[in-house]
Design goal:
By secondary structure, the protein is mainly beta. It has helices at about 30-35, 50-55, 85, and strands at about 5, 10, 20-25, 25, 65-70, 75-80, 260-265, 275-280, 285-290, 300-310, 310-315, 330-335. It has a domain at about 260-335. The model has no long low-confidence stretch (mean pLDDT about 75).
């Protein structure tokens, strides 16, 4: 059975709702048309959208002319733009934190050069100012009046007629009158004012500078090549020049000092070998004397002194085996 409201059927016999205005403020007819345009099973929730986006295939090397979706805030509508155009828009984001330095990869391809910005229109030249009017020419000053003519000198009196005979002397000429003073020069006319310069025209506005293109990503650094084989050893350098001889040390003069010589008695029945070292425990200072004090005809005798020595001594003489006992010779102390 159909249901009517105010004579208008709103539910048909087939139980379909028709001719309904709004339900809870919504127009079922127009909203239904929108719902008809959504694909079956479409999920546009905040949970499903990220999964749908991440499920798209990844473009490893996007071209600057590839398109991306964007929302036009000024037109309140979705649209599309090339990667290049979209990257050049919007405010510059804050500088991100410095990431951990990764391994240096191979050098990437050089990024494309950014497009050159459109050159701004050249401003129109300002019109030249009008030329000021030429000042009036000053009037010519009036000529000064001529000076008055000087008075004519008096004529000399005629001399009396003398007696006939000698001629009388001529009368002197009258003096010339003085010249009249020159009239004053007329004043020079004033120069007219110079007209003002016309104002300069305004400079045209400078066109906007084109945006700088993005810098291409730096490619990773390639792997390090293998180490080359070691080179052969170079030849030995030439022997340097012999250094200067050092200064001679001071000669020791104290008895028994290292470096001094002494005549020593070797009180061991044995041999003495040159350049052989002997301990001081078997050496005493000695001397040679004659055993016959009267005529020096006796035998020479080696005397053993009482004073002992210290250190180590090197023999500078020789006493072979098979000769007399207890020899004496020259030694040098070496330690």
């Amino acid at each position: 059975m159909a249901v009517k409201v105010n004579g208008t059927e709103v539910i048909s016999d087939s139980r379909n709702v028709t001719n309904v205005g709004t339900v809870d403020g919504r127009n079922i007819s127009s909203d239904g048309s929108k719902l008809d345009g959504i694909s079956t099973g479409a999920d546009v929730t905040s949970t499903a959208l990220p999964a749908a986006l991440t499920g798209l295939s990844t473009v490893a090397s996007p071209d600057p002319s590839d398109l991306v979706a964007l929302y036009d805030a000024s037109g309140s509508a979705w649209g599309k733009a090339t990667i290049t155009a979209a990257a050049l828009q919007g405010q510059k984001g804050q500088k991100g934190e410095v990431g951990v330095t990764g391994n240096t990869g191979t050098t990437g391809q050089k990024g494309q050069k950014g497009e050159v910005g459109v050159t701004g229109n050249t401003g129109s030249s300002g019109s030249n100012g009008s030329t000021g009017q030429k000042g009036q020419k000053g009037q010519t000053g009036s000529n000064g009046s001529n000076g008055s003519t000087g008075q004519k000198g008096q004529k000399g009196q005629t001399g009396n007629t003398g007696n006939t005979g000698s001629t009388g002397s001529s009368g002197s000429n009258g003096s010339n009158g003085s010249n009249g003073s020159t009239g004053q020069k007329g004043q020079k006319g004033q120069t007219g004012n110079t007209g003002s310069n016309g104002s300069n025209g305004g400079t045209g506005s400078t066109g906007q500078k084109g945006q700088k293109g993005q810098t291409g990503n730096t490619g990773s650094t390639g792997s390090t090549g293998s180490t080359g084989s070691s080179g052969s050893n170079g030849s030995n350098g030439s022997t340097g020049a012999k250094g200067q001889k050092g200064e001679s040390g001071p000669t020791a003069t104290n008895t028994g000092s290292i470096g001094t010589y002494a005549f020593l008695f070797y009180y061991v029945n044995g041999t003495l070998t040159p350049s052989t070292s002997y301990a001081a425990s078997s050496l005493n200072y000695g001397s040679v004397s004659n055993n016959s004090p009267s005529n020096n005809s006796g035998h020479s005798v080696v005397n053993r002194g009482i004073q002992g020595t210290g250190g180590t001594w090197r023999c500078m003489g020789s006493k072979p085996s098979g000769y007399y006992y207890y020899p004496a010779t020259v030694f040098i102390r070496i330690a």
